[in-house]
Design a protein that fits this description.
- This protein is an alpha+beta fold and 400 residues long.
- The protein has three domains: 93 residues, Double Stranded RNA Binding Domain (2-Layer Sandwich), CATH 3.30.160.390; 80 residues, DNA polymerase, domain 1; 163 residues, Intergrase catalytic core (hpI Integrase, Chain A, Orthogonal Bundle), CATH 1.10.443.
- It has 16 helices and ten strands.
- The strands form three sheets. The protein has a five-stranded mixed beta sheet.
- A hairpin with a 7-residue loop joins strand 9 and strand 10.
- Helix 13 packs antiparallel against helix 14.
């Protein structure tokens, strides 16, 4: 196994291999970093306790800990060993007694607050307090089994959506518990557990429905339409293939008319930018004519210094669907319709992903629907191609 001075640069450069391997530090004897086949890099400390028993506990993940922090922990533990202690055993005993209720606070502080946005933090707290802690909070984090998780999920059969969300949060929590040494590796009790609820793909808004919807969104109320700040927001959402939050939180300071782009400093996936098309430009100019001095492109009608309300936007969307005679579909269906239009427009895949601000192909394609007319056209095209090839083959055969 390689021995070298562990540094941030050497660990970042360490690549995953088919088998796990270790990089040992020359500065602190016993300190090492284990690189798993999945690329996970874990600081560990190898030592023998006062009974001569070999220990090799995990100290933490590279990224969560710096090299300097790992060395400091290793030196502290080695000092305890020299005095006859066994820090690995002591930690294991403390962790073995920790309940899910107690570990939830560790998980929340070390992971949720650091990695998740405010909305996800609130959802985390709500799900634990409302559903999880009441039912399984007293179980030990180290020993709760798949059977007990399955019973928890079945107990929430009256609310399959809540069971689905709870299971996702718990799965992430147990994954962190493994990484941080609170559970043995590859023992996530949520693995293989399913719920009645499944994340459904929104129904695609059909082209005939789009025609009726746009007739309503584009016309002023006096002409039988519903044009307002909220319907303008819907049209902007279509134009930018955007999430609702990206439109309702949009500020004029982020709009660069000269460079024809909008830079969102933050979104569900971090900072993003999108180009301003001719359609979007016309909509933004319309918004500018009605926004006044508001810093928001779609201001709150009652208080221009605040963004438009989500609840009011969703009410306006439901009304637009009802008036247009369209079966209900959530506002996220706008993004699915826009992504499908992008995919079917013939632009390169990477360009389509840039227009929706997706970084992974599989996520982008999850928004793209197959439209029935295209399938019928494809069937006719295949039949015509087959017929042409058959006739050509018969012609050659008869000529022979």
């Amino acid at each position: 196994m390689p021995t070298l001075k562990l540094t941030k640069r050497t660990l970042e450069a360490a690549e995953a291999k088919s088998k796990a391997y270790e990089l040992r530090d020359t500065e602190v004897v016993g300190l090492l970093c284990k690189v798993s086949p999945a690329g996970r890099k874990t600081f560990m400390l190898q030592y023998r306790n006062y009974e001569g028993i070999k220990r090799k506990p995990a100290l933490g993940l590279f990224g969560d800990l710096t090299v300097e922090q790992a060395r400091a922990i290793a030196q502290k533990w080695l000092a305890e060993v020299r005095e006859g202690g066994d820090p690995s055993r002591a930690r294991a005993e403390r962790r073995a007694s920790m309940t899910i209720r107690e570990f939830e606070e560790v998980f929340y502080q070390r992971w949720t607050l650091v990695r998740n946005k405010k909305s996800s933090q609130k959802l985390h707290r709500y799900m634990f307090e409302k559903y999880i802690i009441r039912r399984i909070g007293y179980y030990k984090i180290e020993s709760i089994s798949k059977k007990e998780i399955k019973e928890f999920v079945d107990d929430l059969s009256f609310a399959p959506g809540m069971a689905y969300i709870s299971l996702g949060i718990l799965s992430s929590m147990f994954k962190r518990a493994e990484e941080w040494g609170y559970r043995a590796e590859d023992t996530n009790p949520c693995k293989g557990v399913t719920t009645l609820a499944k994340k459904k793909k929104p129904r695609l808004i059909r082209q005939d429905e789009m025609a009726r919807l746009m007739n309503y969104l584009e016309l002023p109320e006096v002409e039988g339409g519903g044009r307002s700040a909220y319907t303008l927001a819907m049209r902007l959402q279509f134009a930018f293939a955007a999430r609702v939050s990206e439109i309702l939180q949009l500020r004029w300071a982020w709009v660069d008319f000269e460079r024809r782009r909008i830079d969102w400093p933050d979104s569900k996936t971090g900072p993003i930018w999108k180009p301003i098309s001719k359609e979007a430009l016309a909509l933004l100019q319309l918004a500018a004519a009605t926004a006044g001095d508001s810093p928001f492109v779609i201001p709150n009608p009652r208080d221009p210094n605040r963004p438009a309300l989500y609840a009011a936007y969703h009410r306006a969307w439901r009304k637009a669907l009802t008036v247009s005679g369209i079966e209900h579909v959530g506002t996220h269906g706008i993004r699915h319709r826009a992504a499908t239009d992008i995919a079917n427009s013939g632009v390169p895949l990477k360009v389509g992903m840039a227009l929706t601000a997706h970084s992974r192909v599989e996520v982008f394609m999850g928004y793209v629907h197959i439209e029935e007319p295209m399938v019928y056209d494809a069937a006719d095209q295949v039949a015509e191609s087959r017929k042409a090839k058959l006739e050509a083959a018969r012609s050659i055969a008869s000529g022979a």
